[in-house]
């Protein structure tokens, strides 16, 4: 079995000073939480600081977004090359907040996914439906369309490294997490869609995570159905984030 993957998405939070305080609390506890792959996704401004602080400690770094071009006249953007230089191994792509607030389309996300692979980065591709879609029983249709469009041109070999995070939009930052049944059903559907896209072998290598209002309390319900979680609000405190990691760990070892 693969170790679970737990990602802290700090979103537009954490100064370098706050990241320093988080890591001073968090890093000494790493030996207690072995067997779990941990990824921190700070804002761009803290990437290099976090990268230097976690060097050699078995924790990986992710950017929360990037442009698809390697470089050039794109004022205010960050390229794959620049986030690699800052120490990133992963990049979050297609987060619903970027789709909603920054107008990112599936076409944009696809260009970013391809650019990530070109640059040796692992894409953490976020997909998920709106509350309205779920009500209209269109959740699978929406997620299938995102996967099909956003993974276009990805080879089965590249797909093996892909991480997909199922993040229903109605569950993000609302305190209303999806149920284990809803997650299990969508994960199976995502795996089946990946199988159609890349073949059984590559699809079985893709890690599928859940994200949306994950807490230290509800993590025990997700551990059995998901290969990991993407944590937003509850990842800003080292103590709370550690409690989530411990919860995930306990479930897989029991
Ligand atoms: P949340 O965010 O844990 O605050 O719901 C999750 C996410 O946006 O990835």
Summarize the structure in words:
The chain has an eight-stranded parallel beta barrel with strand order 1-2-3-4-5-6-7-8, surrounded by five helices. The chain is α/β, with parallel strands linked by helices and 254 residues long. Strand 7 (207-211), helix 11 (219-223) and strand 8 (228-231) form a beta-alpha-beta unit. The protein contains twelve helices and eight strands. The model has no long low-confidence stretch (mean pLDDT 97). The chain is globular. Helix 1 runs parallel beside helix 2 (44-54) and helix 7 (139-150) runs parallel beside helix 9 (180-198). The structure holds 2-phosphoglycolic acid. The site of 2-phosphoglycolic acid has 13 residues, from strand 8.
Q: Topology, please?
A:
Layout: E1 5-9, H1 16-26, E2 37-41, H2 44-54, E3 59-63, H3 80-85, E4 90-93, H4 96-102, H5 106-118, E5 122-127, H6 131-135, H7 139-150, H8 156-159, E6 163-166, H9 180-198, H10 200-205, E7 207-211, H11 219-223, E8 228-231, H12 238-253
Parallel strand pairs: 1-2, 1-8, 2-3, 3-4, 4-5, 5-6, 6-7, 7-8
Residues 9, 167, 172-173, 211-214, 230-234 line the site of 2-phosphoglycolic acid.
